[in-house]
């Protein structure tokens, strides 16, 4: 018999204080058995404690019992031998998933752990590794990350989860009742701002979180304060950025209202929208409706005002007004409001002045999406507007925000990076590929003279292509992915890393033709690593390369590590520029196709996404920290080795040490060069 | 680690039991675990004093182990499992300089010898016989039923088939017909045959020092192989005086000076006590934990007190509580077997989970979808523990569990 056939119909929670009191006694018995147990015997007695805890979770008043015994359970060794034994190292992101685990024992374990945090946060208990502030902060993050489960929005998915969802919701509510939601909003608001600063093309997650905040403000209310202010700024940007939309009246009512406005009032609306959009990168549905409405308002050009254009954008508007109006008419709608921000940024980049762009965009607007590509777009984005409208909106966003392209949950960083780099420096080429894919459902490329036709190739890493990415990626990635794999296949038998040949052929002439790799491909061990480091300095560091800037993005390979410096995998990124930040620290600014660049790679290497001179969508690291994670980069073959030789010896050991402490820990050659070993510090520099 | 008292004895634990080690590590005696070499790393990691030893068959090397323990200063060896009982006898014969302890241990290890010895001591036992092949079994089955004046076609009274040297229900089969006999594998012979006694089966746990009972517990079986609880119901406890007499007879017959015994008895409808068998080691079914739950003393630590030659009577008197009077309640456990042919998950039956007597369980998650067909008594998948004030309610509750699905 399968488990689905016997799924419980959502057990009634026993509304009985007596039951909680009795289980409390049983819990005490179980704790009393656990407490004296020797470390090797703990697991057996932990189970009984968790078994009772799991039943308490289903009992009215049970959470009080668990909380009152939380410190006792911890001291008795409930968490001994598990990750939970080190509360200071627990990750709030994982809590939500554990609370939904199949096995009630895991749910009980997480609940007991949260109860311990709560006891410390409230000052009821003390823990040697857990400070009160840390406990509050942790719980705040847990609540922020699970905000949608705090409020009783019962959707189909959560209903299907039955008991577990009920228990999770009650637990989260219990915590929020005890520590308050004010801090939670603060955490959530800063998290959203952090994401928005990166100006991703895909904003669904951020919008979703803002919607949660709106519900929270509405349902629970909070004390006035800076958190509330920040939260309201986000909510209003999305749901009511202007005077006429402030009360979120609905689009029909809104359009009725502005029909009676005079020019001053309309101009004020336009500027209100533009301000909110450039503030957050988010476009309100009202803004989209306003723009389309403004196309037919002849007395005053409200469009450039509503797009918030600067000098370059205005110049484009004056030159290509007809095209721009057509783009808005086709691409901007309440279903695709973000196209407005993409368009504004596209105009600001001035790319319309690049000769092929205007005809290429005209061509694109006439194009029908055919065959499989059409199906994929409909599958991804639905039928509220046509696949062509979605695709054009995607084109505007990708070209307007090239660094906002993300790979979604797909192993296709190479393809996402390619789309981003083309959008950045060769948008006409990108439009050419899109046109091929739309019309013929294929993409043609060459590899060292060999013709490659993606339609002839078997599905690649991403199968038939992602459906959780932007429209341009949904259209192109399945083709690019296959071509990339085919190029790899054509490199079979060559010695060394195939990216050496693939990257220039795949991306364009502007990828430097020489390639440095930190590891020996056959053994996976570090090989000639010091030379590798020297060459990177000579190629990219302005103090060592004659102050030569990076003109075109350069693909590079990164060894991604987790916050514990453990190797996670190889990852494709693009080096955009190298320059000093406002504090004079030399930094590498790069594009990461991962959806959120702000990552902690361990050992103090934390990728910054704002506040250190980053432009929208850039990640940055100090030069040495960045280099410590690079395993492959492109270099000019014509330049002599002198510059590399001239890099001072002292630059290398700290970088070498950071690599050796992280991704290269088990890749050190058997006979490591003694010189470097001697100089290596054990701790990476702060 | 608890400070150990150098003035008290130094004990060797024969056999690997984490529960025993956990309890004894918390006690005041120095100890060493003697167990197979695979436990070596684990003991090193967990600071458990350890001597590696293969308890395969008792052989001349037992003297070597005894000498090694003697040189370490060990005073006495305590068997934890049936298989280590004769080793403890052999070792204690050396350590305590009492050669007859080995012979005594052999009596505990061979159910046939054990019964004869009991019979010789004037203890009432059922009809029994050794079986060397299937023919012996059929003959015994027939003769027992003839004795009972059964006619051809009447339902046979069952007989019991037990391995000589296994503990608990391992190797225990109930034989009702010649077909049952055919199902006995060749390698289970020789074995002991016993007539079936209709009656109330129960077990006794007795800690003994200086030939005297220091504490006697009666464990009442609800269903053999499924459930047990302590202390027993008043109906059974009213026989305590007679039972104590029987145990004293056992001590005398088997010349037990110290240690721990775990005999089983039948109380038949004519109010006669029949001796079943006796083991010189802790019982299965975590009965010592039930006793601890009811009486708040640790049975393994009780073993150490009873075995250690340096234990004083004052210590014994302080250690053991007064039976019945000192019990806080009644503790029972139920061994869960999957009832369905195919199971996919563990789910405590709602009525059990909601019952105030239910405490917790130690049930394994179903690792295989297919349930092994039970031959003989088999092994349960874990125990569910109960505790309450009313022995009758507890007994009925344990009985009810047999009709419930824990695995679905």
UniProtKB/TrEMBL annotation, chain A:
<protein>
    <submittedName>
        <fullName>Uncharacterized protein</fullName>
    </submittedName>
</protein>
UniProtKB/TrEMBL annotation, chain B:
<feature type="domain" description="ATP-grasp">
    <location>
        <begin position="115"/>
        <end position="308"/>
    </location>
</feature>
<dbReference type="GO" id="GO:0046872">
    <property type="term" value="F:metal ion binding"/>
</dbReference>
<dbReference type="GO" id="GO:0016874">
    <property type="term" value="F:ligase activity"/>
</dbReference>
<dbReference type="InterPro" id="IPR011761">
    <property type="entry name" value="ATP-grasp"/>
</dbReference>
<protein>
    <submittedName>
        <fullName>Carboxylate--amine ligase</fullName>
    </submittedName>
</protein>
<keyword id="KW-0436">Ligase</keyword>
<keyword id="KW-0547">Nucleotide-binding</keyword>
<dbReference type="GO" id="GO:0005524">
    <property type="term" value="F:ATP binding"/>
</dbReference>
<keyword id="KW-0067">ATP-binding</keyword>
């Amino acid at each position: 018999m399968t488990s689905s056939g016997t799924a419980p119909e959502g057990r009634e929670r026993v509304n009985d204080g007596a039951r909680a009191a009795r289980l409390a006694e049983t819990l005490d018995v179980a704790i009393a058995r656990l407490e004296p147990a020797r470390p090797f015997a703990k697991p057996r007695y932990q189970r009984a404690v968790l078994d009772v805890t799991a039943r308490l979770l289903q009992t009215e008043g049970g959470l009080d019992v668990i909380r009152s015994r939380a410190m006792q359970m911890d001291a008795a060794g409930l968490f001994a031998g598990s990750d939970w034994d080190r509360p200071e190292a627990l990750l709030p992101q994982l809590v939500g998933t554990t609370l939904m685990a199949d096995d009630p024992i895991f749910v009980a374990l997480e609940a007991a752990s949260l109860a311990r945090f709560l006891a410390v946060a409230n000052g009821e208990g003390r823990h040697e590794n857990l400070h009160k502030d840390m406990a509050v902060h942790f719980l705040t993050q847990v609540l922020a990350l699970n905000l949608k489960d705090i409020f009783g929005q019962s959707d189909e998915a959560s209903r299907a989860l039955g008991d577990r969802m009920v228990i999770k919701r009650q637990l989260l509510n219990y915590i929020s009742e005890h520590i308050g939601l004010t801090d939670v909003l603060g955490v959530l608001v800063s998290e959203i701002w952090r994401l928005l600063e990166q100006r991703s093309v895909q904003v669904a997650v951020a919008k979703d979180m803002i919607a949660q905040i709106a519900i929270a403000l509405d349902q629970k209310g909070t004390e006035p304060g800076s958190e509330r202010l920040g939260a309201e700024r986000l909510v209003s940007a999305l749901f009511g950025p202007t005077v006429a939309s402030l009360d979120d009246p609905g689009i029909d009512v809104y359009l009725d209202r502005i029909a009676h406005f005079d020019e001053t009032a309309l101009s004020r609306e336009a500027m209100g929208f533009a301000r909110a959009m450039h503030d957050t990168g988010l476009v309100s549905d009202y803004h989209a409706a306003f723009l389309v409405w403004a196309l037919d308002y002849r007395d005053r050009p409200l469009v450039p005002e509503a797009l918030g254009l600067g000098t370059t954008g205005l110049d484009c508007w004056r030159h290509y007004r007809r095209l721009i109006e057509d783009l808005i008419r086709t691409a901007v709608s309440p279903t695709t409001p973000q196209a407005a921000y993409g368009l504004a940024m596209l105009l600001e980049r001035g790319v319309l002045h690049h000769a092929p762009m205007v005809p290429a965009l005209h061509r694109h607007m006439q194009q029908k999406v055919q065959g499989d590509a059409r199906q994929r777009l409909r599958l991804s984005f639905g039928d509220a507007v046509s696949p062509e409208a979605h695709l054009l909106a995607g084109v505007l966003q990708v070209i307007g925000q090239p660094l906002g392209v993300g790979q979604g949950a797909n192993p296709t960083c190479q393809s996402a990076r390619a789309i981003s780099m083309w959008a950045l420096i060769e948008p006409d080429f990108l439009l050419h590929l899109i046109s091929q894919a739309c019309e013929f459902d294929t993409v043609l490329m060459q590899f060292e003279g060999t013709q490659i036709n993606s339609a002839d190739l078997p599905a690649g890493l991403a199968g038939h292509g992602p459906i959780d990415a932007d429209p341009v990626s949904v259209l192109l990635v399945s083709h690019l992915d296959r071509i990339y794999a085919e190029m790899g296949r054509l490199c079979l038998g060559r010695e060394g890393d195939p990216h050496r040949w693939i990257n220039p052929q795949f991306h364009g002439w502007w990828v430097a033709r020489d390639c440095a790799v930190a590891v020996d491909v056959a053994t996976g061990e570090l090989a000639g690593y010091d030379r590798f480091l020297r060459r990177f300095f000579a190629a990219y560091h302005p103090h060592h390369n004659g102050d030569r800037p990076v003109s075109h993005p350069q693909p590079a390979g990164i060894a991604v590590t987790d916050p514990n410096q453990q190797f996670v995998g190889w990852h494709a990124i693009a080096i955009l520029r190298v320059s000093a930040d406002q504090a004079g620290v030399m930094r590498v600014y790069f594009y990461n196709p991962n959806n959120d660049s702000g990552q902690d790679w361990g050992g103090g290497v934390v990728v910054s996404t704002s506040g250190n001179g980053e432009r929208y969508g850039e990640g940055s690291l100090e030069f040495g920290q960045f280099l410590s994670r690079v395993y492959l980069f492109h270099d000019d073959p014509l330049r002599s080795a002198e510059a590399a030789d001239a890099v001072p010896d002292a630059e290398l050991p700290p970088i070498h040490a950071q690599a050796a402490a992280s991704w290269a820990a088990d890749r050190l050659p058997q006979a490591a060069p003694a010189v470097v070993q001697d100089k290596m510090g054990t701790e990476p520099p702060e | 680690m608890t400070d150990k008292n150098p003035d008290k004895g130094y004990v060797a634990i024969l056999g690997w039991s984490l529960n025993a080690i956990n309890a004894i590590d918390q006690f005041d005696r120095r100890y060493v675990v003697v167990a197979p070499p695979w436990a070596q790393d684990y003991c090193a990691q967990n600071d458990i004093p350890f001597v590696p030893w293969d308890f395969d068959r008792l052989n001349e090397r037992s003297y070597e182990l005894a000498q090694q323990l003697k040189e370490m200063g060990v005073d006495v060896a305590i068997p934890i499992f049936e298989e280590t009982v004769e080793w403890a006898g052999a070792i204690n014969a050396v350590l305590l300089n009492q050669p007859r302890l080995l012979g005594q241990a052999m009596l505990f290890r061979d159910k046939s010898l054990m019964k004869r010895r009991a019979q010789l001591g004037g203890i009432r036992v059922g009809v029994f016989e050794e079986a060397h092949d299937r023919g012996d079994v059929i003959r015994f089955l027939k003769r027992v039923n003839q004795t009972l004046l059964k006619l051809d076609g009447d339902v046979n009274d069952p007989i019991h088939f037990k391995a000589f040297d296994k503990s608990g229900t391992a190797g225990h089969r109930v034989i009702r017909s010649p077909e049952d006999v055919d199902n006995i594998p060749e390698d289970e012979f020789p074995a002991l045959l016993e007539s079936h006694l209709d009656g109330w089966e129960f077990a006794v746990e007795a800690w003994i020092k200086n030939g005297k009972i220091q504490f006697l517990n009666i464990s009442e079986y609800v269903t053999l192989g499924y459930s047990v609880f302590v202390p027993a119901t008043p109906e059974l406890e009213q026989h305590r005086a007679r039972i104590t007499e029987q145990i004293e007879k056992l001590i005398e017959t088997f010349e037990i000076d110290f240690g721990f015994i775990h005999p089983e008895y039948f109380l038949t409808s004519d109010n006669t006590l029949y001796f079943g068998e006796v083991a010189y080691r802790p019982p299965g079914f975590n009965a010592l934990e039930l006793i601890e739950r009811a009486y708040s003393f640790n049975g393994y630590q009780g073993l150490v007190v009873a075995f250690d030659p340096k234990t004083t009577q004052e210590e014994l008197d302080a250690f053991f509580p007064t039976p019945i009077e000192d019990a806080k309640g009644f503790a029972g456990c139920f061994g869960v077997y999957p009832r369905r042919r195919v199971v996919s998950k563990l789910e405590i039956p709602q009525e059990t989970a909601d019952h105030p007597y239910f405490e917790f369980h130690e049930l394994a998650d179903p690792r295989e979808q297919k349930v092994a067909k039970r031959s003989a008594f088999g092994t349960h998948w874990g125990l569910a523990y109960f505790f309450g004030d009313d022995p009758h309610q507890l007994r009925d509750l344990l009985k009810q569990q047999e009709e419930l699905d824990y695995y679905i």
